Amino acid sequence: MKVQLCEVLGAPDVLRWTDIDDPVVGPGDVLVEVHAAGVNFPDGLIVSGNYQTAPELPFVPGSEAAGVVRAVGVDVTGITVGDRVLAFCGMGGYAELVSVPESMVFPVPESMSFVDAAGFAVTYGTSYHGLVDRGALAAGETLLVLGASGGVGLTAVEIGKVLGARVIAAASSPDKLALCREHGADEVIDYTADDLRARLKAVAPDGVNVVYDPVGGEHAQTAVRALSWGGRYLTVGYASGDIPKVGLNRLLVTEGSVHGVLWGAWARRNPDRNADNMRNLFDWYDRGALRPHVDGTYPLADAPTALGVVMGRRARGKVVLTSGRN
């Protein structure tokens, strides 16, 4: 099968489009013929050697894929050959075939395209886990989303609205903020043109209940200072490249808290709870409450280009690879 193979660590262009043996389908595994694969910021961190975990070389990156089940291993009971599915594979998604444990494979609604499905698990799964399981966001509360036009940021805006929160979206340009408005943001802040602290004081004078931060960097301290009494700060990632340091005294005086959000590891440890989350997300999608925004699609052979767009923070919403299969 054809894959994007990482044999040395580096920028996205180190990936090589080449042939390797088809994956082996072990007990409890599902073999998926990939029709589309999501491109995520952590994929690039893994390729560059800057992620929390490092696979042995060579490896095939790609944490999520969607397609048709071609084979199942022994002990697989809930998935059958021919099913349309999405898969959280962790690794191996930039390929024509990928083998994934059954617990991380989910039949998708007939209403969902493979492109939408390929970009669904990581971003929506992360935001749902963050806002519901970790942040306990409640109807009527105020949610601040930093990096709100990116892959996970935009899904946090949507999920926040479904949960009944007032959503403040912060991003770096007027066109990105317009996209956030289209997906339900109640207030928007351009933190390249506006003073974030002053604008938060204006639109949320009593503070924000939850901060969803996949960016890190210079705005983290301001966001922590904006927390209301009992506020929750969700640290989701560091797309800025800067892991922030925040003043713990601010958490003390507001009885605030910081919660790490690492959906992939949590999902593997809690497959049943994750399956419940995914079912809720599929229901919301079927109702039209969630509208994945795909900024661009690229052929699987052009994965380095697509990954470069994501790593350069030039994507609004999701970037997806397609295999050319119907």
Can you describe what's shown?
The structure is a single chain. The relative contact order is 0.16. The chain has helices spanning 41-48, 114-118, 121-134, 151-162, 174-182, 196-203, 220-225, 248-254, 263-269, 271-286, 303-311; strands at 2-5, 16-19, 29-39, 64-72, 84-88, 97-101, 105-107, 142-146, 166-171, 187-190, 208-213, 227-235, 257-260, 294-299, 318-322. The strands form three sheets. Strands 3, 4, 5, 6, 7, 14 and 15 form a seven-stranded mixed beta sheet that branches. A six-stranded parallel beta sheet has the order 10-9-8-11-12-13, with helices on both faces. It contains eleven helices and 15 strands. It is globular, with a radius of gyration of 19 Å. The protein is α/β, with parallel strands linked by helices and 326 residues long.
| Poorly predicted runs | none
Number of helical runs?
A: 11
| E-strand count | 15
Could you give the order of the helices and strands?
EEEHEEEEHHEHEHEHEHEHEHHEHE
Q: What's the Cα radius of gyration?
A: 19 Å
Task: Determine the strand fraction and express it as a percent band.
Answer: 25-35%
Quaternary structure annotation? single chain
The helix content is: 25-40%
Task: Report the structural category.
Answer: alpha/beta
Quote the distance from N terminus to C terminus: 18 Å
Average pLDDT for all residues: 94
Summarize the entry for a quick read:
The chain is α/β, with parallel strands linked by helices and 326 residues long. It has helices spanning 41-48, 114-118, 121-134, 151-162, 174-182, 196-203, 220-225, 248-254, 263-269, 271-286, 303-311; strands at residues 2-5, 16-19, 29-39, 64-72, 84-88, 97-101, 105-107, 142-146, 166-171, 187-190, 208-213, 227-235, 257-260, 294-299, 318-322.
